[in-house]
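Encode chain A's predicted structure.
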Amino acid sequence: MSAGPLTRRDAVRLASAAAASLWLAPFERARAAGWKKVPIATQLWCVRAQLAQDIPGTLKAVGALGYEAVELENAFGKSGAEWKGYLTAANLKACGFHHRLSELSGEKLAASVEFNQAIGNRNLIIRSLAPEVYTSADLLKKTAAEVNEVSERLKTHGMRVGYHNHTTDFGRIDGEYWWNRFADQTSKDVILQFDTGNASEAEGVTPQAFIKRNVGRTISMHVKPFSKKDPNAYLGADELDWPAIMTAAETVGGIEWYIIEYEKEGVPPLESLKANLELFKKLRS
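Encoded structure for chain A:
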């Protein structure tokens, strides 16, 4: 039977996979020894469209790819108990939930705690902040104090608050990176969830340098490829120094979860998540 014409989606997938295999060849000859046994999850933002149509089916598909856990960012109107049932059926754990800061403040905190207790998650990650916070030292100080307060309140529930970076976190205030100022003004108990792809969009940013600078704070990391030459590159075919990043995360970062995320259009998300998981495991073999 004729195979038919090559689609753009197929071309993107094949090109990324081929490039990744070539890039990984030297590491196959000199495999890194001693990587820690760190579980691998994915961020459900990658399959948000699929979840909006079918939560249990999508989670089972993600679990079938080989992921051990997922990080939520939307409950789609379902309760924590319902989500726990979906996760259990898919043989998945919950390793995080991306919240707005407002969901962790005041009277709303109780509902967020209840939901995360139901799904067995202790990492409540702030997804982003208001734009003006990134350009004001005073607003940064005020926000850091609020996050510290949330951290103390969550401790009584055995939970942790964290913060997820985007590119805007790597602007500077009075010569210092916003990200580092936030790290210095928040408690050591506040997770600094490092997104490798988002950070690398900022000129001059090297992920491993920030992980080393903020010792013990990278409890979870978004494993996201970055490449100027090929924005659609998969892990290993991109331009990041993954052995250096993983070494920093596992020696001084305090890593507990690697969370793969791939956001590029052109390839079905389950397909790209499968390929990136396989390539990341190969990087660690």
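Residues 1-14, 17-21, 23-31 have pLDDT under 50 and may be disordered.
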